[in-house]
Write a structure and sequence with these properties.
Length: about 80
Amino acid sequence: MDEQAQKELQESYEIYRTPLDVEKYVAQGVLVPYAKNSKTKFYINVTSKDDIPKDISARVKSLEISKNKLLVTLNLKLLK
């Protein structure tokens, strides 16, 4: 495994070790809850895929297009 791959693996490991601050992204308007009681499904309000924060894009489990909006299911589990 080369050094670049190890660095990327370490970065993704660190993302999964820290909890995602969903409330922060909801307050900023990046994430909008899909339903009131939904904990893992959100609409993403960004203009391009480059605008999605790295810690969110790393946790995307599935993508759907719903009502001309991008609906994502996030993996919020933590690694120990």
